[in-house]
Design the sequence.
């Protein structure tokens, strides 16, 4: 077997996290996952970091696949108590999740960095790859809806079902997306170093607008990707004109882009050199990109590893 | 039945909390319990308030009587996760307890008072009596041991067994007790108003040194008790020369006082007009105090209510 490649994977929610798990199977600690922090939110005063944690739980093998987030076999005793006390109930932190957020909040309050907190969480839970929050600075994605501005988590949790089940209606609800704080935010030194040292950079099949979008919008990231020696390969999150999970289709449609590999490519223009698209996607990216067509749906560990292998092969062929 | 008396009960740990529960049975919302906050402690960055919570759980009928603290049928999922992450494990906050502390910490961080936080916790959990933290200001009880200064909770948890099982050895370990911050702390307006409006003031059978001691040491409290119209009745925590539970005997012995009603009376000199002592206590307080001898052990709700009735009768007779 060849020496493992140094791989960087940009990721947000489930799709990106699953592919990261597949890549970890192949290159282990040679993988660094750059995680979106744009939908971080404070709940009960605690720092909740949905994407970095989701990625960590996938890498550590403790993800609750049934719910699609959180830790397997978790309980919700503390949440029920919080609600009895009068705390807001819209964001349910199950007990192990709550513990992770208590730990992170305290770690950072004591002077630790966001990066070091996530590193300790990932290491102690058993992840082999590194999970790198994109920034130490607060970036807060917001959505303008007909009812006014909403924080992203608020929007996803309170309006999520509508956005996912009816893309057109969902897209109409998304009048604008704003990344509060992005102009003053910087990528971390760890992120920039990982990108510079990478032999392959993968953009995972996460939401191109609200998961990958904030990472690419960080000042200096596009320049760092352009300066990197490694090729950049994106995996489209769309299968046959739909997102596998979550509101990616509605968000891409809301920007007036097609819900397809071509639509995703238009958002990553100037960043990527290749794209993996699903074999059921009828709308390939424009010429000038390397394209690999493959069944991208990841139902289990075998699928995740197989897709990761194709991505590595594509990257090797581009060097 | 006579109109319920307005009763104020000063309390710390289990004994005081049990008597408060008995008093609540008799006078309901006419009871205000002034709770020691001298062993409040930060755990994982959360504000833990052992005595006010213990009292609240007793009043709300959710106390875990088997453990002697915490909430019945609680789980410890979050604590196990925190320990896996690398957090210190000496102070175990079970899941519902953790929720209470998360709620309190956030409530206060948002600008709420300690008093309002505890009021909301007590009300939402179902307590009828009021639970009044003694002060908004931080008072931190510390113990000097042969190994150096220790926070009170640290001392009780790490050395607790020795202190409880061997009073002489325990007393030797307690070289000094310091109430950090007490000179700058003030009793709350709610506490002073409750004392002024009381028809009976009860000092519960809690640790006279580290539970009742901090309340009485607050600047202005002894004056407020002296100025109150209500008689002050103390219930001794000692039965036949021993504490029913906890380290009260070792702390009283460490101050060179007898482990008896007489020893307790010496600590409350100038404050109390009457004392309830156990029928098995061979060492009555000195002359000048009203004394009621009674079986003070509270095994169940009937015992708690019966002792509370005797205390109310004693108080009524003194008006």
Sequence:
């Amino acid at each position: 077997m060849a020496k493992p490649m140094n791989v960087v994977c940009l990721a947000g929610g489930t799709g990106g996290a699953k592919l990261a798990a597949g890549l970890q199977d192949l290159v282990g600690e040679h993988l660094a996952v750059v995680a979106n922090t744009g939908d971080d939110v404070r709940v009960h005063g605690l720092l909740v970091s949905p994407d970095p944690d989701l990625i960590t739980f996938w890498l550590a093998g403790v993800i609750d696949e049934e719910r699609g987030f959180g830790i397997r076999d978790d309980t919700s005793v503390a949440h029920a108590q919080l609600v009895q006390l009068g705390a807001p109930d819209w964001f349910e932190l199950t007990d192990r999740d709550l513990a992770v957020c208590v730990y992170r909040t305290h770690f950072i309050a004591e002077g630790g960095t966001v990066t070091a907190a996530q590193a300790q969480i990932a290491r102690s839970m058993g992840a082999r790859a590194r999970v790198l929050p994109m920034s130490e600075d607060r970036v807060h994605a917001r959505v303008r809806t007909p009812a006014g501005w909403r924080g992203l988590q608020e929007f996803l949790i309170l309006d999520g079902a509508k956005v996912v089940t009816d893309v057109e209606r969902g897209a109409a609800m998304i009048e604008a997306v704003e990344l509060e704080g992005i102009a003053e935010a910087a990528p971390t030194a760890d992120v920039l170093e990982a990108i510079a040292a990478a032999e392959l950079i993968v953009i995972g099949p996460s939401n191109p607008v609200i998961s990958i979008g904030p990472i690419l919008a960080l000042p200096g990231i596009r320049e760092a990707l352009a300066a990197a020696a490694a090729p950049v390969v994106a995996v489209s999150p769309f299968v046959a004109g739909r997102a596998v999970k979550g509101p990616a289709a509605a968000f891409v449609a809301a920007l007036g882009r097609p819900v397809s590999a071509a639509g995703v490519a238009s958002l990553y223009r100037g960043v990527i050199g290749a794209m993996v698209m699903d074999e059921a996607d009828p709308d390939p990216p424009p010429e000038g990109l390397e394209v690999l067509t493959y069944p991208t749906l990841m139902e289990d560990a075998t699928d995740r590893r197989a897709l990761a292998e194709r991505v590595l092969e594509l990257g090797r062929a581009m060097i």
Remarks:
- Residues 7-61+129-137+182-318 of chain A form a domain with the Rossmann fold fold (CATH 3.40.50.10680).
- The first helix of chain A runs from residue 14 to 27.
